[in-house]
From TrEMBL:
Major role in the synthesis of nucleoside triphosphates other than ATP. The ATP gamma phosphate is transferred to the NDP beta phosphate via a ping-pong mechanism, using a phosphorylated active-site intermediate. Its cofactor is Mg(2+). This is Nucleoside diphosphate kinase. Homotetramer. GO terms for biological process: CTP biosynthetic process; GTP biosynthetic process; UTP biosynthetic process. SMART domains: NDK. It comes from Endozoicomonas elysicola. InterPro entries: NDK-like_dom (IPR034907), NDK-like_dom_sf (IPR036850), Nucleoside_diP_kinase (IPR001564). ATP binds at residues 11, 59, 87, 93, 104, 114. GO terms for cellular component: cytoplasm.
Amino acid sequence: MAVERTLSIIKPDAVAKSVIGKILARFEQAGLNVVATKMLHLSEELAGGFYAEHKERPFYNDLVAFMTSGPVVVSVLEGENAVALNRELMGATNPKEAAEGTIRADFAETIDENAVHGSDSAASAEREVAYFFEDSEICPRTR
Ligand code: RTP
Ligand code: MG
């Protein structure tokens, strides 16, 4: 399996709980390198565009309201099998169904406010990384 990149977002609920460091540590402990990261407070336009695929879903308006309710931390994670590995570390979308020891099981309570986002495929990852980062903002390891 080749080295991949994936997009991670630490959502406003997790930022508010001050667990940014704990969540990033889980990625690093699992062998995912943070090769870009920034904190930003998403505008409605930026959050709406990011979740455009969910525009017709009943939860879309609530999702955009939540994602703009406070700052987020957006990161590019790099490593072997990064897309699937990140999804595994995150756990199920609904924290009540998330496996023990996953980020959502440990740091989230509800499906609406579930601590983290992770790209769901290599194609989504490519699109989502480009949505938030210029190539020049990504800093692969040199040592
Ligand atoms: P994400 O995109 O945030 O990584 O989460 P995901 O792939 O596990 O879930 P997805 O189906 O893409 O949904 C995106 C986000 O919308 C909220 N959601 N609410 N109330 C609901 O039924 C519902 N379903 C999804 C969640 O915040 C989910 O992470
Ligand atoms: Mg998704």
